[in-house]
Design brief:
By secondary structure, the chain is an alpha+beta fold. The protein has 15 helices and 17 strands. β8 and β9 form a beta hairpin.
Length: 577
């Protein structure tokens, strides 16, 4: 395939255009769909974080409800209001049972312990002693007496060493007041069981291959998973994570492109931070991108095949026309194309064939016309047999006739010389005036033969004398009048040549008052019929028609009509330039 062929150019152009359009559309769809899918996946992980947050808030609300129930319990208030008794009052055991029952109803609750200001101590954990909480009691007693509100604290190391006996991770501290006496009765310590943290904050990150951080309102890390990693560097790098407000951040975490999702707890000011590897978030997006790439590759192949098909479909007829033109250029005028389609290319092929048929027909007609012209030239050459010798002979005859005072012979010889000079000239056209002079010489000669049986006159308009006509067209018509028109007539014959201008046409009429022409012969003459029984067929009628048509075109005509008083009118018409 040559690169300069139109088929290659069309193929390449269509392939590039379709590929460009396909690439643009694919990228637009791919980009928009990828962004949409990525956004949905991020929103999905935000919902997971939100679900964890809502569950945590729900547990805190339930814990708060359980504490309010304890604070309002008459048995608990009675036990705390009594004066300290050593050993503990028997009623304390009843409170322990009550707390254990409450813990069983809400399994996510850890140890529930009550420390009274008067030394009372009750707990759902029978192995726990007041001395284990003495420092915390002293700290929060001072806090509540100073007007402080309930607080939560993290049990140090509980999430790192789950095998410890005390596995509570988050512990809430509430005061118990005697409303009437306006005095502090005791403090309640309620822990959140480690298994709840394990379910919410440890198992899910492990399964989803994520990292989790829980920080309090001061920005301190309360809980993290994996516990062996330090996340302080992440909080320093992204300080906005310590601030209030939900956020979605895309950035680098420990050298891995990650998406950081943070949401605030509704109750206690805690903040939950999930760190997700971008590869995990966009796994479906990458799969879809792979599908898009496959679709794009298949589409490119389809475009390639389609472009090849279209280029061949369009250029095959053009190639046929091109090959046909090359064959015609080499001389094969019979070359044709076969384009069997109903579109413009098929119409072009049919038009090409019609044009070639017309050219061949015109060529054949031209050959016929050329052959006829050659035959006419041959006739003229045959007539020109040594004209100079003939002229010299006639001059000698004229000279002898003059010496012998035979003036008729001298006059006839002079007319014949002038007639031959005119008729044997190499020119094919002449002015009307010259043609009339030649006919007059002819008539002078014929008068010596026919005597006074006819009169010859001319009616030539002055504005027609210089009009150009074919040579030797009037003499054959006059000769037809003498031979056929006056056949069987004695005397009183008349021949008149008349000329007139009609618009841009010269009209010449040769009029005789002879015996006329019958209707059948007239029709034959009008239609150029050269039948052998036509007496005019050998006297130059067809020859005149052919010559004037070749020289002046279809506007030059010869026609016959009957005269008003008998006889015949031969009319010639020539275009006047």
């Amino acid at each position: 395939m040559k690169f300069n062929k139109i088929s290659y150019k069309i193929f390449l152009g269509m392939l590039l255009l379709s590929s460009m359009i396909l690439l643009i559309m694919t990228n637009l769809v791919k980009q928009s769909y990828t962004n949409f899918l990525k956004k949905n996946e991020i929103n999905f992980h935000v919902l997971i974080t939100s679900g964890t947050k809502y569950r945590f808030d729900s547990i805190i609300n339930v814990m708060d409800g359980a504490v309010r129930e304890i604070i309002s319990n008459h048995m608990v208030l009675s036990a705390l209001s009594a004066h300290p008794i050593v050993p503990p009052a028997p009623g304390d055991f009843t409170v322990n049972v009550y707390l254990q029952g409450l813990q069983q109803v809400q399994p996510f609750l850890g140890d529930i312990s009550i420390c009274g200001v008067g030394g009372q101590f009750c707990s759902s954990n029978t192995s726990l002693r007041r001395s284990d909480l003495e420092k915390l009691f002293a700290k929060y007693k001072e806090h509540f007496e100073a007007g402080g509100s309930m607080e939560y604290f993290v049990n140090p190391g509980a999430h790192q060493y789950p095998q410890n006996t005390y596995q509570d991770v988050l512990t809430g501290v509430w005061p118990i007041f005697d409303i009437k006496a306006q005095r502090l009765l005791g403090i309640i310590f309620v822990g959140l069981n480690y298994t709840i943290f394990q379910e919410m904050f440890i198992l899910s990150p492990i399964i989803n291959k994520e990292k989790f951080i829980m920080i309090d309102s001061s920005g301190k890390i309360v809980f993290s998973q994996p516990s062996y990693e330090s996340f302080e560097e992440i909080l320093r790098r992204y300080p906005m994570l310590r601030e209030r407000g939900d956020r979605i951040i895309e950035g680098d975490v420990l050298g891995v492109d990650s998406i950081i999702v943070s949401e605030n707890s509704a109750n206690l000011g805690f903040k939950f931070i999930r760190i997700i590897d971008s590869k995990n978030v966009t796994s479906d997006t990458r799969k879809m991108q792979g599908y898009f790439n496959i679709v794009f590759a298949v589409s490119i192949i389809i475009c390639l095949v389609f472009s090849l098909y279209i280029s061949r479909k369009l250029t095959k007829p053009i190639a046929q026309l091109f090959d046909a033109c090359k064959r015609i250029e080499a001389g094969d005028m019979s070359s044709r194309v076969s384009i069997r389609t109903g579109d413009e290319m098929g119409q072009l092929g049919r038009t090409f064939n019609l044009i070639m048929d017309e050219i061949n027909e015109n060529f054949e007609r031209e050959l016929v016309e050329q052959k006829r012209q050659n035959e006419l030239k041959l006739e003229i050459l045959r007539a020109q047999i040594n004209p100079h010798f003939l002229y010299n002979t006639l001059d000698s005859i004229k000279f002898l006739a003059t010496l012998q005072e035979n003036h008729n012979i001298a006059s006839m010889s002079s007319s014949l010389i002038n007639l031959l000079k005119y008729n044997l000239s190499s020119k094919t056209v002449a002015m009307l005036k010259e043609e009339i002079e030649s006919v007059s010489n002819y008539v002078d000669i014929q008068k010596y033969r026919y005597g006074d049986i006819f009169e010859f006159t001319t009616d030539i308009a002055a504005d027609t004398e210089r009009c150009v006509i074919s040579r030797f067209v009037l003499q054959p018509l006059v000769e037809n009048c003498l031979i056929h028109g006056f056949d069987g007539i004695e005397g009183d014959g008349a021949i008149t040549i008349r000329s007139r201008l009609e618009n841009d046409t010269l009209r010449l009429d040769v009029i005789d008052n002879g015996s006329g022409i019958d209707e059948e012969t007239m029709n034959r003459l009008q239609h150029g019929d050269g039948a052998q029984d036509n007496p005019y067929s050998k006297i130059g009628v067809s020859n005149i028609r052919e010559r004037i048509r070749l020289q002046f075109g279809e506007a030059a005509t010869l026609s016959y009509s009957a005269g008003d008083g008998g006889g015949t009118i031969a009319s010639l018409r020539f275009p006047v330039s």
